[in-house]
Amino acid sequence: MMRYSPVLRALLLVLFPAALFLGGSPLLHAQTGAAFYYEQGRSYMTGEDWYSAAESFLECLRLNPAHAEGTAALAECYYELGEFDQALSWIRKARTLARGNLDLANLEAFILVALGQLDRASALIAEVLAREPYNKEALFAQAELDIARGRSGDAVARYRDAVRRYSDDRRVLVSLALVLGSLGDTTGALSYIERALEAHPGDYRIYYYAAYLNAKAERFPTAIRYVEQALFYKSGYGPARSLLASLRYRSGQYEEAARLADEAIALNRNDTSAWYLKGMSYIRLRRNAEAISVLSTASVIDPDDEFIRSSLEEILIGSTGLEDPGRIRWAAWHFSRARDFRSRNLVDQALFEYRRGLRLNPYAQDRREYAELLRILGYPARYLEELRFLQDRGMADPTINDAVETYDALLADALFKRWSVDPIELSRRHWKVAVFSVNSQSAFFHVDAGAVASAYIKDLLIHDRNIQPMDLELRQASFSQAFRAAREGGADYFLIITAGESERDLSLGGELFVGRTGSPARTFSTFRTGTDRLRNASRSIVEQLGVSLPFRGELVQRRAAQGLMDKGKADGVTENAVYEIVKKGRPLILNEGIGLYYTAEDVVGTLTINNIDEEVSSGTISRNGFFDQVAPGDEIILQTQKTENAESGAPMADPELRTLLRTLR
Fold first, then answer.
1. Element (H, E) at 497
2. pTM of the predicted protein model
3. Does 307 lie in the same domain as 238?
4. In terms of domains, do 231 and 268 share one?
5. Are 195 and 226 in a shared domain?
6. What is d(CA 454, CA 495) in angstroms, rounded to the nearest whole number?
7. pLDDT band for position 281 (50/70/90)?
């Protein structure tokens, strides 16, 4: 038998297990490697490098698919990255590997709230609280669920209760401050954020939230000081850099805002928020050509960012000629979308895109397609009007000329011709509404979001036949300045727009005030998610405003017992409808709320509709009293009991608040 020396035996004892590890036990090797990648991922999570962390955890799970902690951590990474569907898939796998783990159940609840699956989240939270009534994470999840349901007041009560239990807890104090700030309780919000700073003086995140809350309260110097402290403690903190640039912009330091935007672009050329901020800074500096170039680049990087596109289009319309190539280029984008919507029978969307495109390029041949859509919708007079515009511009061909001749003949017996009136000349808007944004109201991702949304809404109102959007400066320094501008401009009402957003969601609010008194009239609100959310949210605000205002027209002609009104099918006039005829100049706008006031003596008769055209209608006049006092120029009014719009009356989730609370985890 071979014998080994003591030294050789010792060497073999060391090398043999190593050989087994390196080549003889793959399972042991995989487990050791998985542990390494898991620890590496946790390290990346500590530094909030979610992409690198996710990459490490994926490698961990490749080596050991049953690694429960790695599966749960990967779900958390996807949650932090906003990939909620993927996060849900991984957290459910993690829960099968670690059944009964309440921390994982809480994370799934947070993910379900983010996905909008609120009933499922509620059931899961109730399950956790049934086992542990004071589980802190479950209480946080319950509060976020309240906020997602538009019940921020309930969330405040939960957070206050949590503060009593965990008086120095960073997350509880900051969460309560953020919710109070969203509800307009500035004093309460700032007191709790100061309390959090006292308890955690070196936490860069609290300084960031303190800056945000002070900015919301329009205390910009204080907000800048706090965000600079956040960057002192963590110089590479991206959200703080973005907030500082936004604060410089909102403080009127546009050159500095543009410089900070350049720094962000140098770090990430695809940072569209930085490109947008730089473009908006150039607009405020009146460097329009540079602004157009910057915003054009941003729009190419992210064609779906409506704030970028809307700002670009507004500066093109306001600072370039009708033949500018930029206007033609971006108008073509809208026409292409219009054709796509039309091919899918989405008529309202197609109309919007055609109108937006024609605002940029009024002389586009695509007007012909827009005219054809009007004809299909049953508006032959409008169709003819558009074709005549093309003729006047020398853009007609034999087909258009033939169509004009044909529709001239078809409309020979139209109501407006029988009464010998021109509907275009008669067209009058009976409500004057000013649209404003106060204090360059900004949202989470877009500075001047309120002003951009205001411009969008004002553009939509151009196509409302009953509302005249007033040509007043959109950006107002304060409510009092907005009130003065509206009153001096003769507005019936003025609408102040606010915006809140997350990466995927947008909420718009509109507060309507009486132009003469400044008293509240009505509040509108809407929430949209996904693509085209600015367009759809703006349309919702316009629709809510339109249905809230009483019907108002004018008696333009009278022939014995027949009267002609300057409103028709396009204004919602229906056969056999009965309208009050009120003496000219007598109806007054209510001092508060929406409505018209006049006495019974001011009502001189009624008009019962029996003939309707596109833009005018006629009916039988019935006088009130013995004397016939009905005369052309009198107002035609239909006052109905306006019910609160279902959307405007419903509680709305605050997407900005939800984003802030999610990043606070």
1. strand 493-501
2. 0.85
3. yes
4. yes
5. yes
6. 9
7. very high
